[in-house]
Amino acid sequence: MWRSFYLMFRAISAVGSWVERRFTRAGLLALGALVLAGAFGADTSLTVAYRIFTFLAALIALAMVGSWFGTPALAVRPRLPHTLTAGEPFDLRFEVRNASARLVDGVALQIALADSRPTLSQFRSQLKFPTYQGWARLGYANRVAQLAEVSLPPMPAHAHIEIEARGQALRRGRLRIERIDSARAEPLGLMRRLVPAAGGADICVLPKRYPLPPIALPGARRYQPGGMPQGSSVGDSEEFLGLRDYRPGDPLQRIHWRSFARAGRPVVKEYQDEFVARHALVLDTFARPGDEPAFEEAVAVAASFAWTIDTQECLLDLMFVGEEIHTYTAGHGYMLPGRLLEVLSGVAVKSDGDFRVLVEAVRARCDLLSGCVCILLGWDEKRRALLEMLNANGATVLPLLVSASAPADLPARIRRLEPGKIAEGLALL
After folding, report:
1. How high is the pLDDT of residue 250?
2. What is the pLDDT, as a whole number, of residue 283?
């Protein structure tokens, strides 16, 4: 039953999308009147509505034939941003050039986004009963952004203009533009011909962020084995201290051959072990069914910390569990904070698995951490063990619980952030 409804709803939505893109407002009005006339004019002996039906059918047939002709010769060059932010309006810029030797008028640009219709598994798991209203709600929830159609002004021959398309980022993720079409109505003004004018593109929509008060993350500096990478180099790159005479046991790789040749005796490069403050940003992705809104708020809170914490003098490790354990480091010689936001834009909720996987991942690098910001979605013995393990290793812990209700045994030191009031809760940190 579910598959039958899924295929039916998918076909209906595909037809609706085709009609919406191809017909003008006048065409939609004529199409609606055609359906009504067909319904009331079924019995030709009782009404003359069949005449209206015939007339409208002829008009729409002529419009379809007319839409096959009159292709506008436009060249569109997108100038798109690399990232957007969820919940904020944005503008996409396009350079449009009239490549023909005549005036082009009555043309609009349509931006075709990636298919947002739900998959069969999502359709079955998130609906209790297959209804088209539920199907439409899931499709809207999958939309990353909404973009308005852009009407072009009259363009003389070989003219060149720049236009903006206004849109609204609805949620984090990847905004995939499949293509950009130029749409021009036929002489009757009922249907439009769509001609590809530019290829697709992919824009990262970052999670929304909340303002944070000045936060000082205390904690002692920790020894970092191998030192900190300089620039984009990778490997044992401890901080260079100077040169000294060779001592028995020094590795041959550290011999400074130029100084050896100049002094006539072995000279080696001496390095200094590096100690730096290193903080972890641990995101709980293990959510129960129905906790998706709280999870989205938790991702927004993590993005707020990743963007606010100054990584000029410290390192920040983002840790979470997806299909596997993910760890990303921002700071000197590592990723920029903006890259952490791009990582968070693709984090997905995990409905199965064991939270102990995340606990063991944090334990593996606990000796390197000076402090830790833990963003939790629930409270149980496994999450309690995570905080106790961090405290036992001397790390300063800032635990946050994103939940609509407070667990009965929640310790007083854990601050609860209520979805819908996240900004107010963060302001009290």
Report:
1. 75
2. 95
pLDDT at 54: 86
User: By C-alpha distance, which of 95, 105, 94, 112 is closest to 72?
Assistant: 105
CB atoms within 10 A of CB 167: 18
- C-alpha 397/C-alpha 393 separation (Å) is 11
Greater model confidence, 76 or 42: 76
- Round to whole Å and give the CA distance between 319 and 336: 16
Separation CA 6–CA 120 (nearest Å): 7
User: In this predicted model, which residue has the larger pLDDT, 301 or 149?
Assistant: 301
CA distances from 281 to 29, 398, 414 (A): 55, 10, 15
Length in residues, the chain: 429
pLDDT at 235: 36
Could you tell me the CA-to-CA distances from 51 to 29, 63, 124, 188 in Å, in that order? 17, 18, 45, 20
In the 8-state DSSP scheme, what is residue 293?
A: H
d(CA 397, CA 378): 17
Closest CA to 360 of 381, 379, 386, 323: 386
Distance CA 182, CA 195 (A): 5
Q: Is the predicted pLDDT of residue 222 greater than 80, yes or no?
A: no
How many contiguous H segments (helices) and E segments (strands) does the chain have? 11, 19
Confidence of residue 327 (pLDDT cuts 50, 70, 90): very high
CA distance 429 to 121: 40
User: Letter for the amino acid at 139?
Assistant: G
Q: Residue with structure tokens 């409804």?
A: 5
Q: Domains in the chain, start-ordered, CATH in brackets?
A: 2-206 (2.60.40.10), 239-272 (no CATH), 275-427 (3.40.50.410)
Residue 384: partners with Cβ closer than 8 Å, 6 or more residues away? none
- The rounded radius of gyration (Å) of the Cα atoms in the chain is 30
Q: Which of 28-42, 59-73, 236-250, 274-288 has the lowest mean pLDDT?
A: 236-250
A 10 A CB-CB count for 41 gives: 17
Let me know: does 159 contact 96? Beta carbons within 8 Å. Answer: no
Closest among 190, 90, 81, 95 to 152, alpha carbons compared: 95
Region 270-284: mean pLDDT is 75
φ/ψ bin of 415: left (φ > 0), alpha (ψ from -120 to 50), beta (otherwise): beta
Residue 80 neighbours by CB distance under 10 Å? 15
